[in-house]
Design a protein that fits this description.
CATH topology: Growth Hormone, Chain: A
CATH architecture: Up-down Bundle
Number of helices: 14
Strand content: under 5%
Structural class: mainly alpha
Shape: globular
Order of helices and strands: HHHHHHHHHHHHHH
Oligomer: single chain
Number of strands: 0
Radius of gyration: 21 Å
Length: about 425
Amino acid sequence: MDSQNQGIFAKALQKLAVIEQNEIKATFASMLFVFILMASYYILRPVRDAMASDWSDTEVAFLWNINFLVSAGIVALYGFIISRVQLKRVVPIVYAMFAATFVAFYIVAGMVGEGVLVDKAFYLWVSVFALFNVSVFWTFMADTFNKEQAKRLFAVIATGASAGALVGPAIPALFAGVLGTDTLMLIASVGLLLVIPLAIYIYHLKATELGNTDVSADLSAQKMGGKWWAGFSTFATNPFLMGIGAFILLYVFIGSFVYFEQKNLLEIYSREERTQILGSIDLITNLLTFGMAFFLTGRIVTKLGMPFALALLPFAVCVGLIVLAFAPVLVVLLALQVARRSGNYAITRPAREMLFTHVTKEERFKAKPVVDVVVYRGGDALSGSLFALLTDGIGLGLAAVALVGAVISALWGWVGIKLGRNYEGKETAEAEADQG
């Protein structure tokens, strides 16, 4: 591409998505990184969720409780590693480790065939991977781009996740019956290995074209230091991080309620049919996400503010759950699921990740996984047990559960407003300090 065409391309990008010319390479490398990452995950997600319809609500809730303990252990191990390993190596190590584990599942599945214990182990490990890999990626992004760039670019980078989430589920949706679930594990493993050279390249761009060596200490030469449990103690004593944790916890409660109802309504289908249906839902969700994230999210944050961006989805879901309570049918539930997930990926998640540009390096690398993984999976454990109690225990139907969810959504929106105002207060304080 010659210099004139590059200039036209840069101007078009700047107009559509507010990207500066020196940010193009890093932005698109980051988009490709998360594209591959999410494609790999979405190859595995329908396989995992198709298994759940074979089990009762109580069985799934029990798995979620185990997942919470496993996730807490993984985060503690991550804290130990990051205290002793050079930071530039942490990201490649994480993704290489997950790739190796899915290769191991491929080998074991080929040796023992179908088995409940293998299925449940796979279900648990994909659930750990689902949060941890994304948390590490966004931590990497928050350490690559400065605060001003994050406001403009995180939503654009998130479109890479949306594109990957379009390509990923298309593979099981179209080829699950031909390839088989074992081969899907191997394909996902290859994808995770491909992101490692991209991580190294983005580290290089951070110091060169972006000029962001002052965003944190030089990651190429330093270890984090400190104690492995520092992330847990920091989270428990930092009101800002605890606010983010509360926001995530309430989001998880809503997602769990919708997930369980979806699981129950799909139990009449075969596992292959469920995999194809869930893959198709993922495709629809991410088509919507892609358009919203690229053209709307950055402008919502800059024009309407962080409180609006964080509260928009919760209040929309609240309305949707009230509609579901009066029309408790599959089509309404699936529409709500698509709207909830696309709104989260396009608006809520990028806005939430911007919050971590106002934390220290140690909080970003050690406390963020606690928030993203342990709090999230703790929410799974609590909400799964609550749902099992409401359905298997008390015997409530979909309509009654939807009304409970509407109340939780309203509280979720209120926390989003408070958190957004806190963020804007930090922005104002920093701006005044810079002027002073």
